[in-house]
Every structure is written in structure tokens, then in C-alpha cells.
Amino acid sequence: MRVALTGATGFTGRFVNSALKKAGLTPVALQVDLRDREAVDKIVAAADFDRIIHLAGYAFVNAADWDSFYKINQLGTLNLLDAVARKKPGARCIIASSAQVYGPNAEGLISEDAPTNPTNHYALSKWAMERGAKLWRDKLEIVTTRPFNYTGLGQDTQYLIPKIVDHFRRRADVIELGNMWVRRDFGDVRSVADAYVGLTLAADVSPVVNIATGTVSSIGDILAELTALSGHHIEVQVNPAFIRQGDVKVLGGSPKILRENLPDWQPVSLNDTLKWMYNASKNE
Predict the structure, then answer these.
(1) d(C-alpha 187, C-alpha 280), whole Å
(2) pTM of the shown model
């Protein structure tokens, strides 16, 4: 099976690319500006693939140029689906949305049938992408994934956990953070990549699937684990500039449907993820 992959050179895409090869599949990278409809048409028409995993997008929630979220995440995805529908009608298209679409309106472990309430431009662009993608369901098998927070080696230090790991690696005295009260479902990019490959191969897949571990951890948990790993203590200072307005207090996902689709899927624990990131960074 040949699997087209957008965002193949990105943080997640590199791991998905490797996981596809490990599973005996052939990844076909689609490198294109999704905003350029004509260019998308050309690259899709020229590619040879059976299914597609669409990871490319504009992801950093705090980005100031908010209109790029809609141009890339929403309209860019619709450009892609339109081209794929003409090239490979009926193909399975796995598109990466985000757990951010649930917003702050759910408690506990959120399931796929929870109401959506996006509260920032990134989340709203992903929600709009999901809604728009439904217009191609008569032409394509669309599987919408909603990954919860995940991390791993190689993720940019503008993101929370790589930032904290980097500070411990450098044995910094102080770290500036934002909302300390949040609790998140922190997954591992390797587990996420395995989930994407599994959803590509499965005979039947649910139309909307959370990618989540089913557990939540606090920033304090992360700091404590890295303190134990490194033997180093860091002073935490809250920087008002890093506080996200409308941030979600607790964001944890139910992996029930994912496990129903992929009974053998297992997440990597947060402790193992932090050890991987810290020890690899330390030895670079």
C-alpha cells in the first residue's frame, strides 16, 4: 500500500513516515503550499497513492498571525480533499484535527460525542476544517482524528514540554511559564504515529477518533519527574505574557473508540517520554 503523507518533514510527519515504513507501507510525501489550489491539484494528480494521512497545518496556538490558521488548516485542507476526490475517489483520508475543538466545556475524559466549543483561532480553524470536510464524505472515506497534547524528541522548544526539558538539560536556574494550573493528556509522538498507521490499515474505522492516553498530568508532575531525572531544581516564575486567555483547565481524552478500532494500540507513558527526551538531549 502506498500512503500519501502531508507534513512529512514536520515533527509528527517524520515519525509517521518511519512508522509507515516499519509497517511495510510506502510513504509518498506531498510537499506543497496548501493555500495554492492549483499547485495542490498538480501534486495530487501526479502522485501514486492508495490512502492519505493529512498532517500538514499551522499548529502553534499562540501565533499572532491568526488568519494563517484558516488559510492553511481550513481552506488548505479543503483544497487537498477536493484534489484527492478527483484523483482517488473513495480513498480513505485521515485528517488531523485537534482536541482543542472541545474547548473548556467538558470534564473528565472527553469522548468524541462531547459538544465542541473552540475558544481560540487554532481550535476554530480545526473545527471549521472538520465541518468543511464533511462536504466530501460522499466522495471520500474521511477519518477525522482529534489528537490530544503529545510531545517527543525533536519538537520545537516553543512547546511546553520541550521547553521544560531544554531548561533542565541546560541546568537553568529559572524557567518562565504561563498557566500553571492546567492539566493535560500528554501523549508520545511515537504512539501517535502508530495510531495513524493503525487507522490507515484497519478494515473499518470510526469517522471521528480521539488520539489520547486517557490520563492527565499537571505541569508540576512534569517538573517533578525531570527534577528526579536530572537532580536539578529550577525556580518557576509565571510570566503574564505566556498566559493564554481562554485556556482549558483540564483536557483529557477518552481512548475508548481508538482502542475499539485498534485493540493492540498502547500509549507510551509520560515518564518514559520524558526520560527519552531528557536522556537524548543530554547526550547530544
Answers:
(1) 18
(2) 0.93
All structural domains of the chain with their residue ranges: 2-152+188-214+254-267
CATH fold, domain 2-152+188-214+254-267, is Rossmann fold (3.40.50)
Give the tens place of pLDDT for each residue, 239-253: 888 877 666 677 799
**pLDDT (tens digit, 9 = 90+) per residue, 144-157?**
999 999 999 999 99
